[in-house]
Amino acid sequence: MAATRYRRFLKLCEEWPVDASKWGRDLGSHLRGRVAQAFREGENTQVANPEDCDQMYESLVRIHTNYHKNKYPRLNDTNFTGLTMEECRIVITTDNLKDVMEIKTSKWKNVWEKFKEKLPKRT
């Protein structure tokens, strides 16, 4: 039975796309790592809790097949920011997030430097 579970998870990993723009933070690559960790011995792995394993698989399949997106369709293709899905994808790429963090860090450094000048000098 563990062999069947292992094959099902492998098939899901093959179908799940990997987004190269989110390296290190992509759900597809994380899933592959977790499956490799959970099934270290491949088909010979003994599953400690088969019910939890099956429930996890079914949950991942629902995410992969957009079950809830199709069951509860949205009226608009935007979110609270007003950005479309494609614009959000561009914003959350790893490169863009690094740039944003650098900007935040430099702003914080500027503020800190201003306050540092006003602090009394310790002797």
From TrEMBL:
GO BP terms, alphabetized: mitochondrial respiratory chain complex III assembly
Keyword entries, A-Z: Mitochondrion, Mitochondrion nucleoid, Transit peptide
Pfam families per record: UQCC2_CBP6
Gene Ontology cellular component list: mitochondrial nucleoid
Cell membrane found in the keyword field: no
Annotated localization: Mitochondrion matrix, Mitochondrion nucleoid
InterPro entries noted in UniProt: UQCC2 (IPR037698)
KW Mitochondrion (keyword) present: yes
Name the record gives this protein: Mitochondrial nucleoid factor 1
Species name: Alligator mississippiensis (American alligator)
Taxonomic path: Eukaryota, Metazoa, Chordata, Craniata, Vertebrata
Gene for this chain: MNF1
